[in-house]
Amino acid sequence: MRELLTPAQMGACDAFTINHGTPGIDLMERAGQAVADVAKAMTPKNGRVLVLAGPGKNGGDGYVAARLLASAGYDVRVAALGDTRKLEGDAKWAFDGWNGDVLPATELDTSEFAAYGLILDALFGAGLTRGLDGAAAALVQAVNHAEKPVLAVDLPSGLDGRKGQALGPAVQATSTVTFHRLKPGHLLYPGRALCGAIRVADIGIHHDAISAAGFTAQLTGAYLTEHLFDLSADAHKYARGHVLVIGGPPEKAGAGFLSASVALRAGTGLVTLALPPETMAGSVGQYPALMRARCADARDLARLLRDDRLTACALGPGLTPNEATRQMVYAALDSKTALVLDAGAITAFAGMVTPLFERIMARSAPTVLTPHSGEFKRLFGDSETNLSKIERAQKAARGSGAILVLKGADTVIAHPNGRADCTYVNANAPPWLATAGSGDVLAGIVAGLLAQPDTAHNDPQHQTATVALGVWLHGEAGQPSGPALVATDLEAALQTVLQRVSPSQFIAVQG
Ligand SMILES: NC(=O)C1=CN([C@@H]2O[C@H](COP(=O)(O)OP(=O)(O)OC[C@H]3O[C@@H](n4cnc5c(N)ncnc54)[C@H](OP(=O)(O)O)[C@@H]3O)[C@@H](O)[C@H]2O)[C@@H](O)CC1
Ligand SMILES: Nc1ncnc2c1ncn2[C@@H]1O[C@H](COP(=O)(O)OP(=O)(O)O)[C@@H](O)[C@H]1O
Ligand SMILES: [K+]
Predict the structure, then answer these.
(1) Are residues 202 and 349 located together in one domain of the fold?
(2) Does one domain contain both 145 and 292?
(3) Is 158 in the same domain as 283?
(4) Distance, CA of 242 to chain centre
(5) Which of 152, 324, 353, 374 has its CA 20 to 30 A from that of 288?
(6) Residues 60 and 90 sit within 8 Å (Cβ to Cβ)
(7) Which residues of the chain have pLDDT under 70?
(8) How far apart are CA 328 and CA 265, in angstroms?
(9) Is residue 504 part of a domain?
(10) Is the omega angle on the peptide bond into residue 23 within 30 degrees of 0, that is, cis?
(11) The CATH number of the domain where 70 resides is what?
(12) What residues contact residue 439 under an 8 Å CB cut-off, 6+ apart?
């Protein structure tokens, strides 16, 4: 269930299934049944339901649901947008199966919306081709104004299922039922907020349909923990990897400490925190599990990176975006370690990305860039608005040679190969992760995971999955604290999450 399908890919899955012998009306009947089932759970039996049916198959699902709800005893009223005489194919079949009245939506008294227990939004789904205007826009605004529970069929009307954006007005749903698989628009903001609670219903799509139609990305999840390093019982600490984190000046030294301590927590065997002399002096006694090294400039860093036991390096949290940082990034790029570039190491290259990207592309070890949306714009500009966040991350990964982690409430992870099986969307991050230092923790988790031996030997799918696992673990770790979360809470929370999901549990010998 983890593949995300664009509306076009979903349409191809429908077509594949129909071509392999399942009539389209069977799919529509199951879709309408799933909608009716959720509707029944949202409003009391015999309740009043207003079904708003559009001019395509989304409307068809609405007519099926109307029939099933009416036969289950609900008081159903149907209003149609557009000329119902123009309905075709499966949608016409569904319309013909509805025995009650159909009122033109333009004749609805929208002030009466408040009298319904539930509004079913079956206006537009996968077939939306442009922003809503005219009568459709007015209807959607009236639905939102009514402040009644709204169940959206497939997608809230007006929302683009590929991009997660609305060009015009869009329905604010309480709940959304979609079919077979999630679409990007259910996860990418602002779409996710418009969907409310999302359910995915099985409508009997052929099991080979996704292989034939393709998918666009995958949803992260606990399944990614299969990419955790499998720690052998007699492992040596160096067999678990060694991370070098570069810390910054005293004013922002906390960032480096956050990244370094959590890299250790993510399971790497050793972490060295390299600090400028002025920070080194003030840090004695903090985080005793970390090793320290003096690092005043890029020459010092190059010297430290000559230690070939280092397996990953994180650079950027707490660093000032300037020439000295650029030189340090170049030194790190010259090394053979996996590299995570974040914060100051990203912003330092605003407007001067060519030498950065050339060097990233020349590396054999993975390089990860973890920009938030502001940092992303500094490196990649305001790319075409017609691209979804998934497509923007894929394009930036291709252009930079780095595994891209485009952060936010809907973080996207993409590999330079642009493949859907190397692209992820994360959806478990709570909003209180928007707190100072939480990105530094993410950089540390990702570095700590990448530092551990790559038993898949540079397989792009494994590497991207490992980065996506880091993003998912960060989201899981963010949940328990609630809105009072501060970034330092994430370390202990990560410990709890890893205890829960780790495959290797130690069993002591009993005497
Ligand atoms: N067998 C299957 O495939 C299954 C499909 N299923 C269901 O089908 C849905 C997709 O159906 P669909 O492709 O008919 O598209 P749909 O969302 O109803 O809209 C198309 C209509 O809207 C119109 N229109 C578009 N934008 C507009 C605008 N801004 N303003 C005004 N009009 C606009 C457009 O007209 P046009 O663009 O040609 O002017 C056309 O008339 C999918 O979401 C799922 O619910 C399920 O039953 C499972 C089986
Ligand atoms: N509204 C939100 N909902 C969920 N996660 C968020 C939200 N805002 C930010 N995050 C996550 O929190 C982290 C913040 O990173 P960043 O912006 O670099 O912060 P900082 O530089 O303060 O550490 C990222 O992992 C991001 O995905
Ligand atoms: K809809």
Answers:
(1) no
(2) no
(3) no
(4) 29
(5) 324
(6) yes
(7) 284, 383, 504
(8) 25
(9) no
(10) no
(11) 3.40.50.10260
(12) 317, 342, 343, 370, 372, 407
Ligand with smallest separation from the Cα of 490: 2
Predicted local confidence at residue 283, as pLDDT: 72
Phi, psi of 319 (to 5 degrees): -90, 145
Whose structure tokens read 């290797």?
Answer: 504
- Residues in contact with ligand 2 by the CB-under-6-Å rule are 343, 372, 407-409, 411, 429-431, 433-434, 436-440, 442, 474
Establish how many alpha carbons lie within 13 A of residue 162's alpha carbon, considering only the half-sphere containing its beta carbon: 20
CA-CA distance, 15 to 31, in Å (whole number)?
15
Ligand 2 centroid to Cα of residue 372, in Å, is 7
Q: Does 169 lie in the same domain as 274?
A: no
> What is the model's pTM?
0.97
Task: Judge if 174 and 237 occupy the same domain.
Answer: no
What is 206-268 written as a DSSP string?
Answer: -TTHHHHH--SEEE--GGGGGGS----TT--GGGG-EEEEE---GGGHHHHHHHHHHHHHTT-
Instruction: Specify whether 228 is located in the same domain as 168.
Output: no
339 contacts 311 by C-beta, under 8 angstroms: no
Q: What is the amino acid identity at position 188?
A: L
pLDDT digits (tens, 9 = 90+) for 47-88: 999 999 999 999 999 999 999 999 999 999 999 999 999 999
| Residues 94/28, Cβ–Cβ less than 8 Å | yes
Closest atom of ligand 1 to 168 CA is 29
